[in-house]
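Fold these two proteins, one after the other.
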Amino acid sequence: MDAEFTALAEKIEQLIKMCDKLRENNLALRQQIANIRSENDQLSHKVTVAIDKLEHLVNQN
């Protein structure tokens, strides 16, 4: 019976470690998403500025 409890305790420890690792990975992925969204917003703004400039140039002629 002690062996069963020991095996169960080991499995629980493995599960806890896996959950901690997944939590860390999740946090890192959320940070990557935030960074990519920020970069996307910056690029989108640059595209909008470029479009406005091109429209202005086309309308001048």
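Now the second one:
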Amino acid sequence: MARIVSVIPNDDHTLLIELDNHHRIIYDMRPKLQTVRFSRLRNLARFKAVRVEHANTLVWNSICRLTIDEIVDMLDR
């Protein structure tokens, strides 16, 4: 499984995710913002506070997390 090298949050609530296999993913978070789990990330300042943890999870402080497995699963759909 690929590992996350970096993440760049964009003003349109997308994420540019770089993986250690040199792939880049533009992940659109807008549909997820409608869910209870991610609704607090509608605030752009909170959304932009994302960081990579353990090379396999995106974390927004104590608000929520998104694993590489969840990201890949959404891409496969």
